[in-house]
Every structure is written in C-alpha cells, then in structure tokens.
Specification:
19% strand, two-stranded antiparallel sheet, 11 helices, globular, 41% helix, alpha/beta, 9-stranded mixed beta sheet
C-alpha cells in the first residue's frame, strides 16, 4: 500500500512516528502531508518534462542509397491509398525509365503491397545481413507481408510495431534508388510520426475520396505532416466519379469536388482525379496494377499525370 493510500485510510487516527510513539494526525497535518506529497510529485513531473524536452526530436538520417522519399498517406482507411501508392510507383518508372523506383509498405497490420504487386516469399539476406527487396514490374518492394504468413494477423503492441518499422527503414538493402514510395498506414499515429521524424521526406501525397467523412481525416493527415515539417505535395481525389460502362452516365457516388474544396482550404493543389472504375479494382486484386497491365487506359493516364506532377513539385535531390 502506498503512502497516499495509507494517509487516506488513517485519516485523523493516530500515526506511528519515529521510534514508535504515536502522534495524532489532525486535519491540518493531513492537509500539510497532502501538500508536501503534491509538491514532490509536481517537482518530479517538471524534471521529467525537462528531461524529455532536452532530448529533442530524433536526428533524421537518410536511407542509404535512396535519393528521395515520397510518402503516400490518408487519414482514413479504405480510400485507395495503397492502390495509389502502387500505381504511382509504376507511373514514376513509366514516365522516366532511367529512374530506379522502390516501394516500401509500412502498414504493419494490413500490408497490401505483396498482393497488389503479385509477390510472395521471404527476402534474402545480403552479405551485410540486410534484407534484399523483392522485385516485380521493375519495382523493388519491401513489406511486412513478406515476413509473416499471408493469413496470420499481426497482434503486436506499439513497441513491437515500432521495432518492425525501424527494421523496414534501416535493414533493407535498396541498392541505389531515385525515388522510394512509402505506403503509410491510415491515421496520424506512432508509425507516421516515427517515419516522418527519422528519415528526410521529400514530400507527402494525401489520398482521399470526395466524401466529407474521408476529407475530415485527410485534413488531419495534411496538418500532421505540416507540423513535422514534411512538404505536402498535394491531394489525390480518388473514386471521384463513377461512369456506367453501358450508358456512360456519370454519378458522383461520394460527392463532387470535395478534395478540391479541401485543397483550396489548405492552400494545396489537387494532383489529379482517379475515377471509381472496375478495372482499377480488378487489376489490383489480381496483382497486375492498371499502369502496368493497361497503360493506354484513361485510368493509367491519370496516374501517369499524377506522377509527373509529383516529380515537378519535389525539391531538388540532395547531392
């Protein structure tokens, strides 16, 4: 039983002091003890805060071999963030074949990249004991999905998740990459902060549907990156419109131009619009992303245009 609990139980009853003599503990003495304890606790808290502040933020360290990092994020899940990340990586490669592109999936709980990129297996280790990315469609890929069974849930607490993210960031042999596209998990929690504070990020792309509920969380995501001094390159408005394949009638299922209104509010630009299209969903599910499998389609052209906008807005790579 702690000192505070003992004081509460004893109340005004006699309290044993020193060598065993009893001294009455009246109301005034009780109040004095409480104040002394409270003062000590406050002083301990102040010292703790000062200690934490003195540490500051972790020093950013570039990923070896990677020139520029582009994160693809969203405040809410289910808005097509991973689909956008995959097709953005492929579009960057398609727009400039001289560039080497990597794709990193840091969504530890729900990795999507292995399925979307049609990759299976465990990464091999290099001579320096680093994991080698798996390769498909000319893109080097790394994901938690390569390290656990496909159907096995990752039931981990925060510290284990952060350790896994650290390994994905620091223990992968990327070789030499011009762009590393990072598929972030939804939300604005530990993983997003850890990635943003530990590696230099050239820019963030925020993905949202035009729906008000999704836009609320997309705004939080954009504001989070601004707070940690990561440039927000712009918004991608996903599932912007559905066009009936038979009659060609267009329906704004999730609302019209919501992302554009948010972009105007945040003084950002919309990098492009991606329609709600059956081909995008089918090609993603079969592991043949639309930029690779249907490069001449309107949907693929939309991703190619977004990739060109992303590159145009990136700061010059460090020399």
């Amino acid at each position: 039983m702690g000192s505070w609990q003992r004081l509460r139980l004893l109340g005004g009853v006699s309290l044993r002091v020193g060598g065993g003599a009893c001294s009455p503990l009246g109301g005034s003495r009780m109040l004095l003890c409480r104040r002394q304890l409270s003062g000590a606790e406050n002083e301990t808290l102040k010292q703790r805060r000062t200690q934490i502040k003195s540490r500051g933020l972790p020093k950013q360290k570039p990923i070896e071999g990677v020139k520029q990092v582009i994160v693809v994020a969203s405040g809410k899940g289910g808005v097509g963030k991973s689909t956008t990340a995959v097709n953005l990586a492929l579009a960057l490669a398609a727009n400039d074949s001289s560039k080497a592109i990597g794709l990193l999936d840091v969504d530890v709980y729900g990795p999507s990249i292995p399925k979307m990129m049609n990759l299976k297996g465990n990464p091999e280790l290099s001579q320096s004991n680093l994991m080698r990315p798996l390769l498909n469609y000319g893109i080097a890929c790394m994901s938690m999905g390569f390290l656990v069974e496909e159907t096995a849930p990752v039931v981990w607490r925060g510290l284990m998740v952060m350790s896994a993210v650290e390994k994905l960031l620091r223990q992968v042999d990327w070789g030499h990459l011009d762009y590393l596209v990072v598929d972030m998990p939804p939300g604005t929690g530990d993983v997003q902060l850890s990635v943003s504070q530990n590696i230099p990020i050239s820019g963030a792309v925020i993905v949202s549907t035009p729906q008000d509920i999704a836009l609320m969380d997309a705004r939080k995501g954009a504001e989070m990156f601004r707070k940690v001094h990561v440039p927000v390159l712009g918004l991608v408005q996903n599932m912007s419109v559905f066009q009936c394949p038979k009659c060609k009638h267009k329906t704004h299922i999730f609302g019209a131009d919501g992302a554009r209104k948010l972009a105007q509010l945040l003084d950002l630009d919309v990098l492009g619009d991606i329609p709600l299209n059956l081909n995008i969903r089918e090609t993603s599910d079969t592991g043949q992303p639309i930029v690779f499998s249907q490069p001449e389609s309107d949907e693929a052209r939309a991703y190619l245009s977004i990739a060109a906008e992303v590159v145009r807005r990136l700061p010059p790579p460090p020399q």
